[in-house]
Design brief:
Layout (H helix, E strand, L loop, with lengths): L10 E3 L6 E5 L7 E4 L9 E8 L6 E2 L11 H7 L9 H4 L1 E2 L6 E4 L3 E6 L2 E6 L21 E9 L7 E9 L6 E2 L7 E6 L3 E6 L5 E5 L3 H5 L4 E2 L5 E8 L4 E10 L11 E3 L1 H4 L3 H10 L1 H18 L4 H16 L1 E6 L4 E5 L10 H6 L1 H7 L2 H13 L1 E7 L8 E7 L4 E2 L2 E2 L20 H14 L5 H13 L15 E2 L17 H4 L5 H20 L3 H20 L27 H5 L3 H5 L4 H14 L17 E2 L1 H13 L4 H4 L1 H12 L8 E5 L4 E6 L17
Parallel strand pairs: 5-6, 15-16
Antiparallel strand pairs: 1-2, 2-3, 4-5, 4-11, 7-8, 8-9, 9-10, 10-18, 11-17, 12-13, 13-14, 14-18, 15-17, 19-20, 20-21, 22-23, 22-26, 24-25, 27-28, 28-29
């Protein structure tokens, strides 16, 4: 399968584990070089990628927003010059957007214009389980690679190619050659560096304006002004590639609360050490990346929409990752929640499983180990109509592990607050279920833990086994007297916000019980497995009995909520990926009831006029990552996605590519405004990896 063609839009180019990104790709816009920023739409300047055969011939790709004019210092220097202004805008010509072709894979973003091409390589390899911290060295290099190629074989004049930037943010670039004569390029302090080996013919241009120096292929190093980069001469009749790296560095702790450093700090003490390693190892790493891309494209065969969506989604995930070491050499993996910064949000962790199990299954266990060690708790519960929390609840987990670089205190999250009825309340019940999903994916072997999890789950139906109905209704004392538990869909609308009695939570509980049953059976605990299966069957019957007009109610406790909730399918996606299809199919009537519910929802408000899918018929906001999960379940129920949901697939691409084109992939789309309204810089679209395998069972 050929790499998918994608339109101009900003995407991330990130080394896994560094919380870093070169965010670039929208024409008429600039770029950002991010590290621990996660700020959608940030622009640090203009990215200059150019080629030409002398004065008056240089052309550049349109990754620019502000090349007009000069900084004050350079303008003063040129004020007495008789020639035309020495600026990119005055001397070079931008390539029309329509003349640039673009393809995108998980590893390589390629822009082509005639004999010229520009490639950004940001590989995301499979990372084997490390036995110790030192094993992480090959997988923690904080760098990506850039290649500028010109086929000058048809020309009778030498050419010059250039890779650089006009830096408009704080600070001043420095030339790398002042520290290491073997390297061409520029850097900003110890934050980032753009570097290439001079042994390959590359040379530095650093000046207030690079325009004339590029035209004349003249090395220049002046510390004034805003522009700089790397150039390479291409003789007439030849093809040449300028290969460079963009590297990051971080000094000092990465986190507080739990003090950690980035794993890469263990192996590369400074920025230039990262550059040297990245350039020395480029060939082998890019060869491996191309092979990995070929494998992923093969798995997407016949589904170019999936190849395009996953290529963009994998980049959003990588940009949010941190691979960390604590003071004892312990390894930690964190996924930040995009622009919101929550650390290892557990509802996202459950949705990331398909990608993580494909790339690095061992991080699933690490995430859950940190939740168990620091961000779990025991609670008490109340039932509907009760005023106090008089019943023992059990084990559950916090929504997240903290925010930004700060770990939350033990037993807490950064997000949840008591006394709230809506966003920022506690998600005790849902995080219990998410914890079960992630622990099942990690294949944790701990019979006592699985018994404890099941007991906590069943008590949230009712503390008295004889009075259990199959519907999860209890709320945690964490919410306080005036609060109410919510779900991960807190920001969608009223139809899915409340946890107590929610069909989304109820069906997720059914799946969680079956995951417990399988884990218990594997551990030889037949009694726990039987109890879990029996409750799952009870839950299926209870929800089926409440179906009305061909659908499940949105909430079993609140008949006033009449929304059609397609999100009821969401909980089944990851259990299907974990191989639970046979157990789910064995529940009498479940697939029939789910299919009927799905058809009703799609016919009665969950399909927007554009063809895009709503998660609730009353919600104008939709979340692409959750739509992907629902599509996977529809495939299990017999839908042919390419035939039956072609409009929904088309909208997924439009939501991910065109609507957030200036701010990178985002997970909150407002359908009535046809606009992204939040969830930018987001990792959760990588849930699309669930579609790489058929929904079996």
């Amino acid at each position: 399968m050929q790499p998918p063609v994608v339109p101009p839009c900003a995407v991330h180019h990130s080394p896994p584990g560094a919380n870093a990104s070169l965010t670039l790709g929208a024409f008429g816009r600039g770029f950002s070089i991010d590290h621990e920023r996660n700020q959608p739409g940030a622009e640090d300047g203009d990215w200059l990628v150019a080629w030409g055969h002398g004065p008056g011939t240089v052309r550049y790709l349109p990754f620019v927003a502000g090349v007009h004019g000069l900084d004050q210092e350079t303008a003063q220097m040129q004020s007495a010059a008789a020639d035309a202004p020495d600026t990119v805008a005055a001397r070079w010509r931008p390539v029309p957007a329509a003349a640039v072709a673009r393809t995108l894979t998980p590893s390589c973003d390629t822009f082509t214009c005639g004999p010229f091409s520009f490639r950004i390589w940001s590989p995301y390899p499979r990372i084997p389980r490390p036995a110790a911290a030192d094993d992480l060295r090959p997988w923690s290099l904080p760098a990506i690679w850039l290649e500028v190629e010109l086929d000058n074989s048809a020309a009778d004049r030498d050419a010059t190619i250039f890779l650089g930037l006009r830096w408009r943010a704080a600070g001043r670039m420095r030339p790398l050659a002042w520290e290491d004569p073997s390297l061409a390029g520029v850097a900003l302090g110890e934050r980032w560096a753009l570097a290439a080996p001079v042994a390959d013919g590359a040379f530095t241009i650093r000046d207030g304006s690079v325009a004339a120096a590029v035209e004349h292929a003249r090395p220049v190093v002046r510390m004034s002004g805003l522009e700089g980069g790397i150039a390479l001469r291409v003789p007439a009749g030849q093809r040449r590639v300028l290969r460079a790296c963009l590297a990051w560095q971080h000094h000092g702790p990465a986190t507080q609360g739990v003090v950690t450093t980035y794993a890469f700090q263990r192996f590369w003490p400074d920025l230039l050490a990262v550059c040297r390693t990245a350039l020395a190892e480029a060939s082998q790493r890019l060869t491996a990346a191309a092979q990995d891309d070929a494998g992923l494209l093969e798995r997407c065969a016949g589904r170019p929409w999936l190849a395009a969506f996953l290529a963009q989604a994998a980049r959003g995930y990588a940009a949010n990752t941190q691979l960390l070491l604590d003071r004892d050499g312990g390894i930690h993996w964190c996924v930040l929640e995009g622009q919101y910064w929550w650390r290892n949000t557990l509802d996202l962790a459950a949705d990331h499983l398909a990608w993580e199990l494909d790339r690095h299954p061992w991080v699933v266990g690490l995430i859950m180990a940190d939740h168990r060690a620091r961000h779990s708790y025991q609670d008490h519960i109340r039932l509907p109509g009760e005023t106090g929390f008089t019943h023992a609840g059990g084990l559950s987990f916090a929504h997240d592990q903290g925010n930004c670089s700060q770990y939350a205190p033990p037993g807490t999250s950064g997000y949840e607050r008591p006394g709230v009825r809506g966003c920022y309340s506690f998600m005790t019940l849902e995080q219990l279920l998410n914890g079960i999903y992630v622990l099942a994916a990690a294949q944790v072997e701990d019979p006592e833990l699985w018994r404890e999890l099941l007991a906590s789950l069943l008590r949230r139906d009712h503390p008295d086994p004889a009075r259990r109905s199959g519907i999860l209704v209890a709320e945690s004392d964490r919410v306080g007297d005036a609060g109410a538990e919510i779900t991960t869909y807190d920001a969608l609308d009223h139809s899915l916000m409340a946890a107590s009695g929610s069909v989304y939570i109820g069906l997720k509980g059914l799946c969680a019980a079956l995951l417990i049953a399988r884990a218990a059976q594997r551990g030889g605990d037949a009694a726990t497995a039987a109890t879990a299966r029996a409750w799952a069957a009870q839950a299926e019957v209870a929800w089926a009995a409440r179906m009305v007009d061909g659908r499940y109610p949105a909430n079993a406790l609140d008949p006033a909520v009449t929304s059609r909730v397609l999100a009821a399918l969401d909980p089944f996606a990851m259990p299907l990926h974990l191989g639970l299809g046979a157990e789910l199919a064995a529940l009498p009537g479940l697939r029939t009831h789910l299919a009927l519910h799905a058809r009703t929802c799609l016919a009665e408000g969950c399909r927007h006029p554009s063809g895009g899918l709503r998660l609730s018929s009353t919600a104008e906001m939709t979340w692409p990552s959750k739509v992907v999960l629902c599509l996977h379940v529809l495939a299990w129920l017999g839908w042919d996605l390419e035939r039956d949901e072609s409009a929904a697939l088309r909208e997924l691409l439009r939501w991910s590519q065109l609507l957030p084109a200036h701010g990178t992939i985002a997970d909150q789309v407002r359908l009535d405004q046809d606009a992204v309204i939040g969830g930018a810089y987001y990792p959760r679209m990588v849930s699309a990896a669930v579609l790489l395998e058929p929904a079996g069972g």
